[in-house]
From TrEMBL:
UniProt-recorded name of the protein: Polysaccharide deacetylase family protein
A Pfam short name: Polysacc_deac_1
Keywords, in A-Z order: Hydrolase, Metal-binding, Signal
InterPro entries: Glyco_hydro/deAcase_b/a-brl, NODB_dom, Polysacc_deacetylase_ArnD
Signal peptide: 1-18
Length: 242
């Protein structure tokens, strides 16, 4: 029995050391999880109805345009340091180019949606090209993540009728936004990004937040942004699809 007991103790010790450290009471944290049905819905007040089930000052953090090995891991670290879960809307080309980074996002417990195979403005493209891009995006998602996608965000939020109809036929949820930091604009300091984000949230009262994990300035500023959200009394809700 002694060798078996030794093996059990060694296993438990290894598991203990492998477990991620718990966040302190000063962390922003994830207050709860909101589980949505896999359906052809559309949320985000920039273009659609408000996401149902969110209370005032609750936010859903979302990141677009990745995965990008130079910046996405920094975003993941900032989120992990604050015990925050988010949703990443990935493009198909970098998804295929950097599958290990995409799986790192998924394995960290974040939700993953789609953002077009290429980051094109579909409102300016023929319908056939829009549908071909969607097919390529879905194929890349399945290939890299081994799962069926549930949600889609249009690049530039440029929604196009043909692609909207195709997403509806496939039962995919369209995610727009409620607030953001305009973090694609160059040469912004963390304070500038925080001021924009909190200013927009003051108007919307909360909701779906748009950021970009492919932006170096966003990755560097994210610890400051998360601290600003906590200081502003906002609570993070993670999205899941059943």
């Amino acid at each position: 029995m002694k060798p078996l007991l030794t093996l059990i103790m060694a296993t438990l010790t290894t598991a203990a050391f492998a477990a991620p450290p718990a966040c302190g009471s000063d962390a922003l944290g994830t207050s709860r999880t909101l589980t949505l049905r896999r359906e052809a819905a559309a949320w985000g007040t920039a273009q659609h109805a408000a996401l149902p089930g969110l209370a005032p000052r609750e936010v859903v953090l979302t990141f677009d345009d990745g995965p990008r090995p130079e910046s996405t891991p920094l975003v993941l670290k900032a989120l992990a340091d604050q015990c925050v879960k988010a949703t990443f809307f990935m493009n198909g080309e970098p998804l295929r180019q950097h599958p290990e980074t995409a799986r790192q996002v998924r394995d960290a417990g974040h939700s993953v949606g789609m953002h077009g195979f290429r980051h094109d403005n579909f409102s300016q493209m023929p319908a056939a090209a829009q549908l071909a891009d969607l097919d390529a995006m879905v194929a890349a998602y399945r290939e890299v993540l081994g799962d069926e996608p549930a949600a889609y965000r249009f690049p530039f939020l440029a929604e196009a009728p043909a692609l909207l109809a195709a997403l509806k036929d496939r039962g995919l949820t369209v995610m727009s936004v409620d607030a953001g930091a305009e973090d694609w604009l160059p040469n912004q300091t963390p304070q500038m990004l925080a001021d924009k984000l909190l200013g927009q949230l003051a108007k919307s009262g909360g909701g779906i937040v748009l950021l970009h994990d492919a932006q170096d300035q966003t990755a560097r500023a994210l610890p400051f942004l998360l601290s600003a959200l906590k200081g502003g009394g906002y609570r993070v809700v993670q999205l899941r699809w059943e």
